[in-house]
Amino acid sequence: MTVFAAASLTEAFTDDRTKLAAVNPGLSLTFSFAGSQQLVAQIESGAPADVVATADEPSMGKLVAANLVDTPRDFATNLLEIVVAPGNPKGVRGLSDLSRADLKVVLEDPSVPAGKYGRQALDRQGVKVNPVSLELDVKSELVKVETGEADAGIVYVTDIRSAGGKVSGVAIPGDQNVVARYPVAVVRGTTKRELAQAFVQQLYSGPGRQALLARGFLAPR
Amino acid sequence: MKRRPPTAVAIMAALAVAMVALPLVGLLLRTPWPDLGPVLASPDVRQALVLSAECSVGALGVSVVLGVPLAWILARVSFPGRSLVRALVTLPMVLPPVVGGVALLFAFGRRGLVGQYLAGVPGFPSPFTTGAVVLAEAFVAMPFLVITAEAGLRQMDQRFEEAAATLGAGPWRRFWTVTLPLVAPSLAAGATLCWARALGEFGATITFAGNLPGRTQTTPTAIYVLLESNPEHAVAVSLVLLTVSLAALIGLRQRWLGAL
Amino acid sequence: MTLHARVALELGAMNLDLELDAERAGILAIAGPNGAGKTTLLRALAGLLAIDRGRVELDGEVLDDTTSGIHLEPEVRPVAVVFQDYLLFPHLSALENVAYGLRSRGASRSAARQEAGTWLERVGVAGMAAERPRGLSGGQAQRVALARALATRPALLLLDEPLAAIDVSARAALRRDLRTHLTGADGVRIVVTHDPLDAMAMADRLVVMESGRIIQQGTLQEVTARPRSRWVAQLVGLNLYRGTASGNLITLPEGHQIRVTGETQGSAFAVVHPRAVSLHRQRPEGSPRNVWPGQVDGIDFEGDRVRVEVGGPVGVVAEVTPQAATELRLAEGGRVWVTIKATEFEVYPT
Hints:
The complex is a heterotrimer. By secondary structure, chain A is an alpha/beta fold. Chain A is built from eight helices and ten strands. Chain A has a five-stranded mixed beta sheet with strand order 2-1-3-10-4. In chain A, helix 2 (about 35-45) packs parallel to helix 3. The longest helix of chain A is centred in the N-terminal third of the chain and has 14 residues, at about 10-25. Chain A starts with a strand and ends in a 7-residue tail after the last helix. The model of chain A has no long low-confidence stretch (mean pLDDT about 90). Chain B has helices at about 5-30, 35-40, 45-75, 80-90, 95-110, 115-120, 130-155, 160-165, 170-200, 205-210, 220-230, 230-250, 255. Chain C is α+β, with helices and mostly antiparallel strands. In chain C, about 25% of the residues lie in helices and about 35% in strands. The radius of gyration of chain C is 24 Å and the shape is elongated.
């Protein structure tokens, strides 16, 4: 069975597969991780996915409009967090600090869900940021902060957890934060409907739920 | 004797053409012709096109100023380790561009080998600057110029330089008035390839210089971004690069290609 | 102006060791077979090659001196070269080619072009001034190359096989022209050639080289009176042998002996004219003369004479009448007998 999933779900889903494989030795579960837009484009071109999980609702919406998936449901949410160098040497305390002239800030490009949400959060607080770069995927942004090229950025909570000690995080309070909703759906053309539905189900209550929570995702609201 | 190619050869050649042509045809078919004008005129796209033009020419300039003397030394001066130097200089041709970008970060980034000392110097191509784009493009494109220039210099009849010497021309004058004109076809071919490569560079640029419209967002990066939000517009902008590349190659006349 | 050159150098298989003096008066031809080292010497004089040992002095100015480590680069030597394939710059017109040396020495563009035009006129190709070298005939290119070298008014003008690339039919006229132009020029003039006709036409003095050494030098007359090398012998159309003489007998290196007259002893040359060589179908009887067998390697019908190259233990070139050739039924590969009277040989010490 093949699952197409947004890149930010990489670690969580991989953990999930390990757990599932322990219980179902015969299970063959293949993942394809990419940006949500790419996943949508591929499925529109007829890629052989059985399940698809995106990082935002508009992407899934395209698939719904094209009648390519069953009704989607949110299975997880994610929150934004400010990423800084380990130990927060520049003393970043919140979103408003990102407009400081002495900081080199990288953000995600608005064409990517994380970028869109980040901008939303900044705009809502009226923070004007001059980023030095708008990265095209979260990993690149993390690398820039890890290597010290940039001082701060906005990524998901889960990304900061995954990066371990290579970065530190500065929490964004709930009222300033943006909730990223992750929908999942069974692809209409699948030949493994039962398996697909079972996979989806275990994301809510089962090894999937555990894996997601362990990586920092939150329950769907 | 007019050559009629053997059937097998002709079929393989036709397949080769198809492999290259079909994706391009697909591109042409998906182009939103009516939208072409407005898309290309939009500020973001215009900005990306102008930046690409400026940076690719800048990268070509860097490649010529640094690469031609290097090619001259590789072609004319025998020194220990020459093959190693040649291999090193052409390494970017086979290196995955992103790897190149990462390497540039480690050398010229804020904490880089050289970058840590020169980060504050005005004009230094630090990451996130337009200079970084030029550096990344030159990094991947210069080898093309060096290779063709060296070949041209090797093939050239050096006796012309001897003749010039007997007529009273010193080394510099010989280079400008005899050597350079004689290798001009090779240089033209190499420069065209170099410039085209710089224009299309993506991986090293985005890794080292980043992506910021107006400062570091080149056309390939803009296309990639558009692919996420508006694939049709991405196709439209791709068409521009395709047309420019085609024009460059057509301008690269037969006799210059013969020099390759 | 005079040239004093002592040159010793080794280049690959070439080993050069000689002493050469040349005056401004007259044209000097350096001649000899291919591989003699003539071009190597020329390149050394031009400064394109470094010498291993020696000294080159031109008109008082030291160009090379290995003991003091002096080696003037070509661009600062008052030496100009007309190369064997001219090496006219393909991207410049004939006029610009001729102007090149003038421009290199600092002349303004207009002054250089004007003077270049005059030189082209002098060598007779003014009409081709705007042509690129590829549009020139062999003869025209040669003249442009000459003008280009002459324009720099060199103290030493070197010409490397100047007529080698010229069509045989055009050579005679060009040879005369070249001689005229060279005669009118200043400075030391040296022509390097392997063609005896070139040497004969242009040389006032002749230096004959072989295997990197000078074998003979002097006026044409002096050199051809006593040929000391195959090349000179060819020049005068003689058969030349070298061996050890003991009175009436000369022993050649391979052991064969020639009967001669005279009392020369020791290392000696023996020359005999092809006309003095007789050919026979059968071994002739009798008298004490030189007799040996051979096979016909080549026959050349030259009007009223037939030159026959005979190969064998002692090679020789014979000249017979067409009748004799027919009577003997001479054919390539056929066997003949050679006889030469002892008195026909001229013998002199080496």
